[in-house]
Design a protein that fits this description.
The complex is a heterotrimer of chains A (731), B (465) and C (325). Chain B is mainly α. In chain B, 68% of the residues lie in helices and 3% in strands. Classes of the chains: A alpha+beta (731), B mainly alpha (465), C mainly alpha (325).
Chain lengths: 731, 465, 325
Amino acid sequence: MTRKRFGTMVSYVFIAFSILVFSGQAPAAWNNPYPASDRHANILYSFFRERPKTLDPARAYSFNEYTIIGQIYEPPFQYHYLKRPYALVPLTATAVPQPTYYDDNGRQLADDARVEDIAQSVYEIRIRPGIYYQPHPCFARDDNGSYLYHDLTPVQLSGYRRIDDFAQTGTRELVAADYVYQMKRLAHPGLHSPILSLMSEYIVGMGEYAQELQKVHDQLAKKGEAPTYLDLTRYSLTGVEQVDRYTYRVKIRGKYPQFRYWMAMPFFAPMPPEADRFFSQPGMADQNLTLEWYPVGTGPYMLTVNNPNLQMVLERNPRFHDEYYPNEGKEGDVAKGLLADAGKRLPFVDKAIFSLEKEAIPRWNKYLQGYADLQGYWDRTGVPAAGFDQTIQMTAGGDTELTPEMQAKGIRLLTSVAPSTYYLGFNMLDPVVGGYSERSRKLRQALSIAIEYEQEILIFRNGRGIPAQGPLASGIFGYRAGCAGRNTYVYDCVDGRLTRKPIEVARRLLEEAGYPNGRDSVTGKPLLLYFETALAGPDAKAHLDWMRKQFQKLNIQLVVRATDYNRFQEKMLKGNAQIFRWGWGADYPDPENFLFLLYGPNSQVGNAGENAANYENAEFDRLFVKMKDMDNGPARARVIDRMLEIVRRDAPWVWGLHPKEFILHNAWVHNVEPNHMANNALKYLRLDPALRAERREEWNKPVLWPIGLLGIVLAITALPAVVSYMRKEGY
Amino acid sequence: MPQFVFLWTDRLIFLLLGAIIAFTIYALRHEHLRAPWRQVRQRPLAMSALVVLLAYVAVGLLDSVHLRSRLASDNPQAVQYAPEIISVLDLIGEPLIRRTEVSFSAPFATHAFVKEVVEKPDGRMTMEYPRLRYGGRHLHNPNRRVADIVAKSFKGVIVGGLIWMLLVVVVAALLRRRDEMFGQTLAKLVRGDGAILWWPVTLTAGAVIVLISVVVNLSTYYHVLGTDQVGQDVLWRSVKSIRTGLLVGTLTTLVMLPFALLLGVAAGYFRGWVDDVIQYTYTTLSSIPSVLLIAAAILSLHVYITTHEEAFPTVVERADLRLLFLCLILGLTNWTGLCRLLRGETLKLRELDYIQAATALGVRNAQIMARHILPNVMHLVLITVVLDFSLLVLAEAVLSYVGVGVDPSTDSWGNMINSARLEMAREPIVWWSLTSAFAFMFGLVLAANLFADAVRDALDPRLRK
Amino acid sequence: MIAYIVRRILYAIPILIGVNLLTFTLFFFVNSPDDIARLQLGVKRVTPEAIEKWKVAHGYDKPLLYNNDEIGSARLTDTIFFKHSVRLFLFDFGRADDGRDISYDISKRVWPSLAIALPTLLMGVLVNITFAMLLAFFRGMYLDTWGVVLCVIMMSISTLFYIIGGQYVTGKLLRLVPISGYDTSWQAIKFVILPVIIGVVSGVGAGTRLYRTFFLEEINKDYVRTGRAKGLSELRVLFRHVLKNAMIPILTQVGALIPLLFIGSLIMESFFGIPGLGSYTIDAIRHQDFSIVRAMVFLGAVLYIAGYLLTDISYTLVDPRVRLN
């Protein structure tokens, strides 16, 4: 080829390329992360941020785990999807039972018996017949009725890498014994269920049962048998008994009304003994085939792809029992279209694909491109701070709404205050900030005024939160909104609005505490306080700077002791921390679940409880014991008010904030409603895949001209090089 | 009198400074060491870069003299010092530290970047961009901002220019030889003479001084580079980060160099069991992914600090120890790369005829290594050190991302870039933190590279003309 | 040559022992078994008894290195070190602290890592050599000067910036490729393009500059001058002699990157959601899962030694004067 012809060819190619690039006639949606063939499928796309640690219902205890297993395992009760305040309704049970009470002698008591007299409460749960498990190899039987896959040798097993490799599956009806079996598993020595020690206090015989199992387990281990498998059907637990095929009974020590809430959590879901037996065969765990990763449930979905490094896929369970969309909700639900599907059979979505997405920004951008249907629904993160200004604007009233740009995209916003709290705790054992003297109390009160949580909400949470007035989050019984529920030590009520007391009040309190202008009135030494934190990441510095600024308002130096999570835990356990940040998310919607964070016998030091401030007040503790077992009503509210007044005065925490959570969903998702208690919400969601496909195409037209431009720029920059080359080589 | 405090890194940085000065004096007295530097002095770009580098170093040094100020007290006997440790630079920049806003504001802004609920006099609540507390406060009419900025910059230029001229005259007076007219000396400074290329120095110094003067003048009225999430002046944060950048770049190299040189050359030269032992050591160390080693070291530092809390009463001391530790561990993970490179090169060099000949003639090994091999690998060392300087400054940002970088309370470009990655996704975009961290880091890295390029050309025996 | 290779493989054993001991000590100094247990058991409602039980169940209740309570060889074998670290030599990585089989996860994750790292490395070396040759060709001219300045500018930019910027522009503004994610089949290509390009671009400044110095060093050597004096064209000199002789330092540099091929790029994989070994390691560090960390360190060490050996062998291929014995 001569030089000239080569040159001509190059220019032809270039022109052809430019035409392609500049005309914009390229196929749509190059950036679709999912196979193009699934465009019109009834699949819900969502993300998970961190791989779940375990999918075993006896162990799982966090959002990212519940996101998956909530759709698979079915405890006897669930929270009503739409009703507020949160209400328990039966799921597999026929009804939410009232407990019957018995005294020391086993005599039945009236329902309104005094708490002191009640020795035992008994819950009798009846489940609906005709509920079947998802198809699973652990139920597969041969023609003689014996299990196909229960006695495999490791050699036979080595051919099975995934659960689909087992060709045969079977199913079985759900029976009460499965619930009993799961409650026994809570005591299994190899499982380390997080609620074992709590349940040992309440379920009759649970503690002894755990010890018994431990002994058997150790014996088996000594004999060299595979120690993981304990046939729990052989060991009975006194507090939990099967009455008949569909009924079981749980005995609770004393009165513990909150137990019903526990029974709506996956800890109390049914576990077929066959599954345990199947997965406990030697050799299974080497292929990662364990109950930890392969749930077996009766729920609307089953886990079909289990790759926690990339994707978790839930598919409709073909054997799912009859369940229908609720017929009633709260006020306004009809207008919002939340009852359009009332009475229809659940679930609506065929398949849900959860992809791993650790970073907030890609997660957010993919949502905006339509490659996620919901934002902030499962992981409770909502709109990242970064995308906030683009998405949400505040109205004059301090409320939030979507920006016109987002409204035009059809995106919808749902806000709700979460039943959780973030606070700044003082270690009450500390000689400076702790203790119950007037001096330390005033110091704490002064700090409570100085630390402006309104600012934190504005700067770090984009207004997503409300300043806390006490430990109780909104939506929990005993919480009072507005001026009536204010913390009188920190807030004034001006024109019916909560207003933080001016900083001068804090300065005066500090002076009264003996630290005028931040210096000890006796020695003249400046007051130094220490803040423990395990914060890391890009936001940490800004946060710590902000915290220092708050203390500087009172001329107090705050020394930040940043450390890693383990060190932080250790200091907390030993009571060496002075000031720290902590949070709590409710297990169930009951004030007990918040106020126990300040109950003396629950202190972290000595009892390893959740009372991280190690707060102890005899009157508060007495009232707590009383309040705990009361039924919701004016009497209980009065007791709670008294308790709140005590802790507000003592100020063991700076009552921080209750986060407001934002859920965004695209126009093609229906029936979205924030429900902080229900973790099985997937079955209620409905999709419009056609609309989604259309919008995705529309939103994701590739922009190609910059590439052409880049090519031209590169060509131009290469020009001098070519010229120089020609000159140098003597052309 | 304030109480002076010497942090560990302060001591090391002054030790390093002392070593450099001592070497310079030594080199000046020895002709064969002086010769290559003459070539450096003739390169305009290198001399400009040197001035910029010196400006950075000056800031870094000012930030390395730490003290506690004395608190006002009625009782002269019981003297109390402020608990916080500050540096001389903090004293100078006090106005910038004090003038913090609530949250983000753009460069030269008069209004905040984020809307706030504002109560109107009639009691209505509206959302609007409030005026900043400090930035542009002096303006009654924010619309006249541009004119004001131009006027203030012009004033800065004039003041800077005057300072520069004064400086030139003073330097000329100091440099003047007896037999010279004063005018001749001045002309030399502007045009240059045979020995030192003065004009780039004079010009760059002028540019730097004028720039500083303009920025200082403006920054008392505006936030020149905006404010960050908690309202701190970004310009100030970038300036404070200079010390961290310099320390990570220099102390790390200081730690790693002796090991790498000695062991790398010895391994390649002696081979046999020496090679084996050295290879064993560095293979073992370098087979551990460095992030992991750094993570473990930083975590163990946490353990140490937590168990010896009373030894580190202030944030600054804790942060300082962490910085030092980071430098040490980065040095430990970095030396192996250079060591390998040197070994490979020495393997090649020792096969060369003249070294084979020297061996055959019975020249002592130490002598061969010092005379023939070391000079021939020095360019590799310098290139690696230069590349590492910038890489280390950049690596710090990545480590911060993993959570094992400098202390979160330390100002560093890495920390700034790292938080900026969230700001990048805001809309409208918050670009100024990232840009200014990038610009400051870029200035340092570029200057260091340009200067070192010249030094390399001068030192490399094979590139020398 | 064969003897040399055998000897080097034998050397690997003490190195691996050293690596193992070092990681073991490092991690147990900072991470007591209590810490591991706490991290695995989660945040809510963790009691000291639960921690004790977890330790017993996972074999973390034994002494670290030496067991005084046992007799004979059990004094050494009934320890955390022996139980958890020695099996590694048989490439039996065991179970992670969260119960998953490590070998299984590694075998799944190594492919995505390779899919990113191999093209990045090959393209990177190719691009760097090309640019460096160009600069060497134009040495002493303004193109060279500005090329070097460009290199300096490019290497002054943080990798994080390249990643965030690349993702922002290509994924969000231009919508050319998915922002992040991965797929197992050929679909993976669309996910791989962007990380590879970013990987190459972010390395091109430093790489070109480094290779340029290698080339320049060769160019000034006598044999090159001789070649040129003989009338060989400049290009021929560059390719025939300079490139060939500069291969030793280039190979040394590339050889050091071989373990990274498999171990993957930590940051890149995290940002692009690639389920490779890099993100596996970084997650393990974050969750302080000692078993995984140890396995990855061991694997890294093996690969490192392999890469090193390959480099040494390749020396003899490019330069017959280098003798291995």
